[in-house]
Recover the amino acids of this structure.
């Protein structure tokens, strides 16, 4: 049917007859990074929008993981067929600007819209979305890490099940009490689990923030701060959890297996994303709590997840239609639905005032923790040549965890390697 | 094989059997784990109890998470189309390179060999632009087209055709066989083991191919199984092993069963074709 309409329209246009001015076809790429029916939810969202706006057709195309979506967006744009919109990692902003395939949103918005719409997002989310005074990404699919704790394990260890650790020292102290060994000395339950496979730099940014440093890179993405005393303190703390205190499993801890390990009681405390809330709520066989990451000199956590990007190479009419869709999708009712169904953090304060969101917050107090933590959030590591810089930091964090390098050596190496790459952008 | 068996002592034999078993178990373990997690509730993914409750729910959830029925049809269409096109094109090309004299033959063959050295992934942008120019975006043909003229198949078949005795070729021609008749009646039957071996490699490769189909297609009607499988790789929220393994078994099942049914033929053909 759709192909028919498209062909018919193309024919009308080709023969010089006026096509209806309101007919706009938009392409929109989206990745799926959480479990559940995220793909189905996006398709229902776009369908609802089309029902309300009969002149617009949105083709929502599932494009794999974030990395796959980025690959596809770049490929399609270079192949002369860019989408109108795509949800890509917020930290990919510099890469997209570098590729010269995206546009800032501001030129299409009135001053009032910039103030009310752009200004209405949580500042913590906008910090990874703006560059040189322009907005390049609209926060949508955003998350932040939180700490899950097993109330039954706390009770069994003689701790107050309603009081999670508030500080680094408390986490070590409680972790000692929570680590259970059998008669042969093998650990049957670890105190803490901070996964370090894949992208350890993300959770590590939370430690760095708690140690008092505002993120790992400058806002313009040309400087990284890997070898400061704060970052060193954070890495030494992370390494000491297994080497000195014996409360965390030694070696690299798998990210993907973390929710399962927590639910199986392998660890009494686990750090992972709010994106796991729905999964753990549905499957944990015990009472659990959700808390902010523990503080050292201050509280802190990174933000993560994806933004809407606007691709260049389209007519103004189409671009405006795409912007209208994003405005609709981030409006309170829609954003609330999206947040409740996926577990992503609603990116605007006004979303939390909807009735649906209030009911959800009352039922799932964990969701509110993520929102309240935004006040202390710092940006996720984002720089020019982002994937390479992040990889350098990841490799060096892992080298310190497995003991190949001392924390100081690892961070000095990471700083040196990153500087060599970023020098070209200064 | 038989000469080797002649000289081996009991020690060699024991070593051989132990090695074979070790390799077989190493190969089988992930599969066994996938089967275990797929038929048990998620609580048992890391706990192995003999009488854990069985469930088919993982399969139901996996099947309902994506239009796998349609994806199956697409994948089967895709691998059949690619294999058919490869066999026709590459048999003809290999025959020309093996037996015909024509100007530029060596240069052309060198170009074909160069294709073997280029990683397909770096051609994605170029291929996408070509498909876009041909107006083939979002079709099954677009997924397969870049793979039709397989350098590997041409090389493999050319080497096989070169081992066919000239006398057979000449005898057929004396009997009045045309050029294509010779190819069809003499060369192709003798290269059957190679063709089967290549067919297996080709089918399993395209059955598993992911990134190119993901990039060049957009709709349910053109996308293959691997794209359906990928929605379970949810990096943000951790991996649900029981569902992902059920989905893996669903998507790789037909290939596995096919291989188990025909394994004797495949192995024999591989031995004869000299690919191990």
């Amino acid at each position: 049917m759709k192909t028919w309409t498209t062909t018919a329209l193309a024919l009308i246009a080709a023969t010089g007859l006026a096509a209806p001015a309101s007919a706009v076809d938009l392409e929109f790429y989206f990745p799926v990074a959480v479990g559940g029916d995220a793909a189905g939810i996006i398709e229902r969202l776009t369908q609802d929008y089309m029902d309300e706006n009969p002149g617009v057709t949105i083709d929502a195309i599932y494009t794999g993981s974030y990395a796959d979506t980025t690959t596809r967006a770049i490929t399609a744009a270079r192949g002369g067929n860019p989408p109108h919109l795509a949800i890509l990692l917020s930290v990919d902003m510099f890469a997209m600007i570098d590729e010269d395939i995206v546009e800032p949103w501001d030129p299409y918005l009135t001053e009032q819209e910039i103030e009310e719409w752009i200004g209405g997002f949580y500042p913590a989310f906008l910090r990874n979305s703006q560059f040189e005074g322009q907005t390049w990404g609209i926060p949508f699919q955003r998350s932040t890490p939180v700490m899950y704790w097993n109330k039954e394990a706390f009770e069994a260890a003689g701790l107050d099940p309603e009081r999670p650790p508030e500080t680094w020292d408390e986490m070590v102290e409680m972790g000692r009490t929570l680590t259970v060994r059998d008669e042969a000395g093998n650990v049957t339950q670890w105190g803490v689990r901070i996964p370090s496979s894949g992208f350890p730099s993300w959770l590590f940014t939370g430690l760095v923030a708690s140690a008092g440093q505002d993120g790992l890179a400058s806002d313009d993405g040309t400087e990284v701060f890997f070898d400061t005393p704060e970052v060193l303190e954070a890495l030494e703390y992370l390494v000491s959890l297994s080497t000195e205190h014996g409360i965390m499993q030694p070696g690299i801890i798998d990210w993907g297996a973390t929710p399962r390990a927590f639910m199986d009681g392998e660890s009494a405390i686990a750090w992972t994303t709010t994106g796991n809330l729905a999964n753990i709520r549905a499957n944990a066989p015990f009472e659990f709590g959700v808390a902010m990451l523990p503080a050292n000199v201050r509280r802190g956590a990174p933000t993560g997840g994806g933004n809407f990007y606007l691709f260049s190479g389209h007519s103004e009419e189409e671009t405006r239609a795409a912007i209208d869709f994003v405005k609709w999708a981030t409006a309170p009712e829609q954003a609330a639905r999206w947040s409740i169904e996926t577990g992503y953090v609603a990116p605007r304060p006004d979303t939390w005032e909807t009735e649906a969101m209030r009911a959800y917050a009352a039922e799932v107090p964990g969701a509110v923790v993520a929102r309240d933590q935004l006040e202390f959030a710092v940006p996720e590591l984002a720089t020019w040549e982002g994937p390479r810089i992040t990889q350098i930091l990841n490799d060096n964090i892992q080298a310190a965890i497995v003991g190949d390098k001392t924390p100081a050596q690892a961070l000095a190496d990471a700083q040196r390697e990153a500087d060599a790459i970023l020098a070209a952008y200064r | 094989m038989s000469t080797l068996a002649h000289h081996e002592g009991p020690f060699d034999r024991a070593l051989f059997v132990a090695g074979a078993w070790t390799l077989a178990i190493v190969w089988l373990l992930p599969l066994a784990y996938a089967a275990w997690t797929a038929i048990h509730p998620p609580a048992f993914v890391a706990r192995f109890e003999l009488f854990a409750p069985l469930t088919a729910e993982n399969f139901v959830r996996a099947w309902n998470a994506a239009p796998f029925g349609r994806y199956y049809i697409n994948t089967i269409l895709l691998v059949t189309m690619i294999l058919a096109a490869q066999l026709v094109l590459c048999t003809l090309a290999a025959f020309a390179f093996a037996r015909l004299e024509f100007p530029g033959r060596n240069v052309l063959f060198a170009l074909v060999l160069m294709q073997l050295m280029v990683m397909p992934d770096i051609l994605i942008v170029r291929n996408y632009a070509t498909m876009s120019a041909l107006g083939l975006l979002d079709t099954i043909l677009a997924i397969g087209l870049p793979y039709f003229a397989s350098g590997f198949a041409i090389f493999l078949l050319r080497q096989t055709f070169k081992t066919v005795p000239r006398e057979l070729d000449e005898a057929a021609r004396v009997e009045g066989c045309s050029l294509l008749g010779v190819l069809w009646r003499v060369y192709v039957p003798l290269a059957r083991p190679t063709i089967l071996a290549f067919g297996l490699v080709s089918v399993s490769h395209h059955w598993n191919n992911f990134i190119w189909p993901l990039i060049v297609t957009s709709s349910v009607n053109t996308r293959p199984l691997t794209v359906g499988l990928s929605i379970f790789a949810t990096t943000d929220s951790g991996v649900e092993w029981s569902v992902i393994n059920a989905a893996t078994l669903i998507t790789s099942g037909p290939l596995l069963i096919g291989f188990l049914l025909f394994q004797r033929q495949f192995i024999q053909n591989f031995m004869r074709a000299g690919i191990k």
